[in-house]
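Worked problem 6 (solution included).
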Amino acid sequence: AFFTTYEGVKSPLTRINPTSRDGSHLVSLPILHSAASATAELVSCFILHPTEVLKQNAQIVRRSPSNTTKLFDGSATMMALRKFKKPGQLWTGYTALAAKNLPFTARQFPM
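Solution. The predicted structure is:
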């Protein structure tokens, strides 16, 4: 998801970036690459974050030692998923993750 989004954002930004008579770009290419990598990081976090939330919640689920006949009924992941009443709750903490990752990605990727 990261590189697909990165290339999908970088190409149009590069195409619409005007060039002056001396051949220099109005917006420098490292800034365009930073913007593309930041957008890609936001998309990547949006996809990966729910799985991390489920994983962390599954690690703390207490299972009763009962015999169940249904498939996945005793699965810690399924038990953790049932705790979330609304799908939006899986993205709790997304902004903190994005705020943590964005500065590094925007700085590191264009180098």
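Discussion: The helical segments are 2-16, 29-59, 76-83, 94-108.
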